[in-house]
Amino acid sequence: MQHLGLTMSKDPEDGRLLEVEASLAPEVRMITKMSIPLIITFLLQYSLTVASVYAVGNLGADELAAVSLSNLLASISSYGIIQGTASALSTLCPQAYGRKDYKTVGLQSLRCACLLLIIYIPIFAVWYWGSYPILNFLAPGIKATYLASRYLRRLSFGVPGFIVFEVTKQYLQAQGIFHASTCVLAFCAPLNVALNITLVWDKHIGMGFEGAPTAVSIINWLMAIMLVLYAVFINGYQCWCGFSKEVFKHWGRLLTLAGPGVLMIEAEWLAFEIIAIASSRFGTVALAAQSIVATTCVTVYQIPYAISVAVSTRIAWYIGSASEAAAHTATNASLIVATGLGFVNAFSLAALRTYTARLFTHDEDVIELASRVLLVGAAYQLGDVLSCVAGGILRGQGRQYIGGWLNLTCYYVIALPVSYYCGFHLKLGLPGLWLGMVVALGTISIGAVIAVLTTNWRALIQKSVEDGLSDYQRTICSDSTSLLSRNDRSVAARVSHNMLSPVASASGAEIMAS
């Protein structure tokens, strides 16, 4: 556990493992250190989408509209579902690792991969055979809809690679291996740019418009293969459990966490897409400004999201190791980091708003409007960062349902009505639409922070212990430290908490009572 920055206490008399020690300042430093490779990872991963838009943009307005529409539909109908489902591993894998239940880390990852591949079967069918009829029904006779359907058909072959990459990334992150995906993307992101340009524009092998989704599909598979090879040959193989029939059993806990995870992501993404669609009613200038603001805010969002992943993993480690005080300290440290970053993001976005807009366009009307909206975007940065990081804490705790219901309620009961009222009734235009997001994210952040500060850590630790006992009782592991009696609950408790817990030597009854 030393490589994770976890310091174990030892009883001087018998050397038993006690609680993991944590103090505020070192915890802030460790969260920051863990976040740096993740920030690079998510920024590079976001660049994959930007590269395809850039490569296709000069082909024409129809092609640009088609790739934007395709990316929107792909995010809502596939990528959001994949990332939401995979977020269940943010709870299951790090908690298992914290318990030293290493085989369960691999087992849950395999279960999630199989679940996602099954879920993707109907999505593939819709993308490949049904995308054009659906798009043509929504917008009949428009060339962009035909092009978008072709884009989705090509892109559909790369999504399984994306699934494997996401699950493997979660599998490695649970073990504290954050730099592996960064290294893979550091190689693949520049290659993606070159491949997009080549497959779209090259005179000999270029495919035109369809070259962009082809490049993305190739890169998705390359990322998956490279990350799996890293886990097999370099680091991360220690938690591999082997492929067995157990992979297809006992999916209940995974599904319980996956559903709210999907709700949490889809509710937010869809709300922002509705704002984007509504902005088109204000004309071309507003639509262009919306594109600039959305791209900027999504790019900035990668920073707190990366921190939330690091925080989620760390909180789950502490819960798995039954370290209540350390989990509480890590929560406080996370909120301190989030508050500081929120103010930095807000100040930076406000100070650089005009310069940022000029990076995208030379149209003065668009620059002026985008600058005003970016000022509104700066206003919600504190709420955005706090809600994001608090959401990470909730994922580490296994309480995704709180974030899911908060997002659903605040975006659709509060944000969208406020956006409509300010944008159209008060005639504030595009800035008015974004005011709804300020209100929503402020409300979500307050609710999420209250939820994490009032956490019953003992109940979460007990749930993690019960999960560990269930996993052990279902599976016979080859590791001698993982052998459990199927009948003696107290023996099971003692063995499982040779894993990290302060109640390592307690009886089963004491564990369950605690």
From TrEMBL:
The chain crosses the membrane at residues 36-56, 76-98, 110-131, 213-233, 254-278, 298-320, 332-352, 372-394, 401-421, 433-453. GO terms for molecular function: antiporter activity; xenobiotic transmembrane transporter activity. Keywords: Membrane, Transmembrane, Transmembrane helix. GO terms for cellular component: membrane. It is found in: Membrane. It is a multi-pass membrane protein. Pfam families: MatE. One of its GO terms (biological process) is xenobiotic detoxification by transmembrane export across the plasma membrane. Belongs to the multi antimicrobial extrusion (MATE) (TC 2.A.66.1) family. NCBIfam families: matE (TIGR00797). This is DEBR0S5_01640g1_1. It comes from Dekkera bruxellensis (Brettanomyces custersii).
